[in-house]
Give the backbone structure.
Amino acid sequence: MKRVLAVCYLLWGCEAAPRGDRVTLELANRADYLEARVEDRVLAPYLAAQPDLRVVQQAAATYQAAYHDRLLTSIVAGAPPDVFLVDNSDVPALINRGALLDLTPYLTRAGVDLACLDQTVLSFFTRGDALYALPKGYTPLLVVYNKDLFDRARIPYPTDDWTWDDFLRIAQRLTRDTDGDGVIDQWGSYFDRRPFVWIPWIWAGGGDVLCPDGRRASGCLDGPHTIAAIRWYTGWMTRYGIAPRAHNPLTSGDDFRLFTSGRIAMMTTGHSWVPRLRPYVANGLLRAGFVAIPHRAGFRPATVIYASGYAVPALVTRRKRSIELAAYLTDSLADALRGEGGGLELPAMTGAAQALVARDRLGWEAAFLRAATTGRAPWGGRVERWRDVEAALPDLLDRITLTGADPAVAARELAREVDRLLAGTR
Amino acid sequence: MSAHGTAHWRGRAAAAALASAVLVLGAVRWASARADRLLAQRTAATAAAYLALVAPPSRGGADYDLPRLLIEARALDGLPDFTGRLEVYHGTAPLVQATARPLAPGRFEQLRRQAVARREGAATLAPLFDRDGWEVVGAVAARPGGGGWLSWPTLLAALLSLGAGAAALAAWGGRRSWRAIGWYSAAATLFGVAAYGDLRSTARDATDRWLGDGRLLIQEAVARLPATRTSLATLAAIARGAELAVGGDSAGGEAWRQTVAGAPRAVVAVRLGPGRWAELRAPPGEAATAGWLAVTLGLALFGPLAVALAAWAEREAARPQRLRETVAAWGFLTPSALHLAVFSVAPVLFALYLSLHRWSLADPAEPFVGLANFAAMVRDPLVWISLRNTALYVLYVPVSMTLALGVALALDRRSWGARAIQAMFFLPYVASGVAIALVWQWMYHPDGGLLNRLLSAAHLRPVDWLGNPRTALVAVMIVSVWVQLGYQMTVFLAGLQGVPQAYLDAARVDGASVWQRFWRITFPLLKPVTLFVLVTGIIGSFQVFTYSYVLTDGGPLHATDVMAYRIYQTAWELLQLGYASALSLLLFVVLFGVTRAHFTLVGKQVEYA
Amino acid sequence: MRRVGGVLVALVGCAMIVPFLYMIATAFMGEFEVLRYPPPLLPARLHPENFASALTALPFGRFFLNSAIFSVGVVAGQVATSATAAYAFARLRFPGRDRVFVAYLSVLMVPAVVLLIPRFLIINALGWVDTYAGLISTELVSVWGIFLLRQFFLTIPRDLEDAARLDGAGEWTVFWRVVLPLSKPALATLAVFAFVDQWKSFLWPLIATRSTDMQVVEVGIANFHGQYYTNWPYQMAAAVTAVLPLLVLYFVAQKYFIRGIQLTGLK
């Protein structure tokens, strides 16, 4: 018994041991182990230069939901991390609650030059004169296509100005039963029911799920252009037969596996696929290209841009140290990625992004930069109650594809539901 | 019982009554001292922010012009009505009282690097930042004001309570004994409430004093600074942690309370200029003291409770066995009861409170909405869908229990083979959740999944297990059976060790078949364990959302949307904590009813086997 | 009859571990192979180096130590508190016993999701975030365990206890010398499941700890599972390794579940 007590005491003692006179900063992001490794490397010289500084990384937080769980609990408890990564979809809620520090007054002292940053992305984190996060990176959504399949079918590669009709024609030609067993085993495209993937397609068809003021859906989600776009998008599966019936499992990464095995010719995706596809290209397993999401004839091309940035809590205790750390990370992570040949996101530093384009012989990075010019902020970056809407939206597609509901009817009903959610108080 | 016994219990009761009074006073003293300390801390920070605003910079730098900082610091100390007791340091040099001891260099260096306020004996040392709020160039020390922490009424209530306690002890054992204890309880309640009142008013005073000082400094800053620099945002920096809003026209000097956007606020009017008023609002300190009522009341009532218990114990001493068992039982229960009170009951009370409010995690305001969350719940179609799904989902429990009991009976032997197979059944339970999700997504995969490969080998149509609303819930239930089987089997196995071999052997000798031996001997003796597996299985099935979450995300078309998943999504993805708490209460009530029913149906016969 | 049943159970047992074998197969797969379509069942070539790479990609030694401290601490606490409380509920008569027991049980019915935030607020107020104390303290009492042991104590014949009481033994002696030794199967069951549950728990350790030094295995494994990219072979290699201590534990505890070694009270 005594021995047990002694061990307990020892363990407690280790925890309680004074950590000297060091300043401890907590840094939270949702980096996986590879990103965390890059970050560690980037931080090493910074910490070496400041021996009294200790940075505790909270990088374990895996998927987004778990990251949010942890971040929000610590904010509630009044003990937020000193620097943390936010998505532009987190920004409305956190700004409205005054949880984020306006960084503008400290930028010069921290050595941040806003002119070096991508201005569109910067605007996602800006409200009026105030800047609430230093942009880290961003990605527009694009279409990735399998060049081998195109070549085999003798179809020229698509260009950024292609239309829905072009897309459909190509997809239909690429949907085939290659081994003649009566089962289609190569599909033109892939039907993704997650709203953050299909909403840019609706935009490119001239529609939208919410009205421009972001307060209601009626009149927009059930507007003629939106309904036409939904009908067309769900038609991939129900009418045109260019996409396999899939239930979109959340974790197993079926989309990637289908694409890299040559089962799917064209797929909607973001920059996170760039580092994942490079090894396939390098090993000669695959040739792929990126092209803008096609638009409906008569409407303007459009896509969405998702971005992330480093924020500092409003009531941060060590303002100087925290802001300096955020600024350093923004700056040097971009540099590090320049060396790595691209990360999960495009760096928000324009210089670093340009350098990526210059080095990239596949033309992928250039396609992303071009697509970004037609990019808009996602609804989540503007509407605080977007989460409620996003949770309700998959039902719309499910009803059409699984129960055969009429898109117009389903859209009208969901629009009313979304109106209620946006007006709701819960 | 002997006279010695009586004196024994009575002495203990008297000690408890006295201890209870002392503890209450101690709690009030401690809480008041803490409020004072916090006030000193806030005052120091406010004074530092004020100096940063009014003291001009030295030429060509962000640091202050020293002589001017000295003047400002002394002026601050001489400000009429200012309640803070301060010392200002530039570097380590004291400015207000030149003869005071300078700050230890090590201390200052520490402050410079840590840049957070720290305690220095009784005083608080807050960092003084340069004008850009960037480097620490000095410090502001504030000493707590000290002051009365006990009011006359409370003191009287304390004496009254002690007197009533003495009376109760005097009436010990007599006819009036219980009535005297009743009076003692009433007096103690009064004492507890009065003590809480003192505590609350100390907290209230602290907020008021801080707001008053904040107002004074803001007005002073407005008077000194050119108009261009007196934007509200600039001034608000003085009172960090409070908001400064245009409005208010009262010249009243006192702070008042009002509700702003659903949150209670302490407010003072600040005069920014002729006809220009603003309101300085801060969360009132007394609002955060509610928990202390439970503490003071609990401590105060500890006295009468102890007296009553002692009186009861003395009476029960006539039945020593019962008394001994009761005392022993509570001795055995105390650790778990205390832990549950802190880590389970208190959170549940918090959830109850939340269910009447609207609260999204990041929002400091928690407006009271009454029963609106419950009304919304009744109208929410998803709630009803998830209730139905939960009711269907629970059905896997009896299935897996039957299987588990069968497996346990078959494996209840000593061979290596049996041990290995037991471990095989146990494996799914220990596998990591993420891995389970992945593996089953592949098992259920519409194209290459193992189940569909088996089906097509048998020339059956493949099934989109997780993608079809008709099969998705069944698929999730299969995973649940797979995971739970090993757990239930193990509990049954352990339960089987309680069935004496002698009984079974005797039955065998009498010619009973395997089947008869099971129904007549094993099963009845296993009933407590069966009840346990059933009840915990059902409770568990109500609570588990992992598989819905990782396999189907509640879909398709809410086919796997169970209650626990709904609560998780509402709380963590939609951030509606109030509504999620209301849903939890619903789940709790349903579960309580179901469990109660089980105990009445199955339990009665085995409760006291 | 018995033999047929045994064979059947053995077959089902083999079917039970198929998904687990799949985990192991994945752990040995190559980086590209695992992402083929349709998902391959077996690795074409074994990649045992996945284990070494996965376990060195992150400080898994530290994670295992943390998990062990966390789980052992919780097991010790739960066995102690559960056994004492269960004894009171199963064997002692006192006023309000059944009501108190129902109150205990009702704690089990509160969705864990709701407890998370208040519990975090409590350990934050105590300054225990990112320490073993914070990690362990909330889990020290398990109503599940109390209930389990109570049901088991109910099955123990009273005769032995009464004999001890007649000899003048106090309640503590009866509990310690008579009841506990007779309940080894139940205590072993409780210990095994308390250990496994903590070893597997994810959300609470995720929220209650912050630094990499304090992470537990389950949270560590999740590092391979990013928002955009999951290294399946690494994740499975780590998950398979994490199961091994639990299997060993199960085999050690197994002797208490198995007929013949444990003698029941009546002879």
Residues 1-5, 7-19 of chain A have pLDDT under 50 and may be disordered.
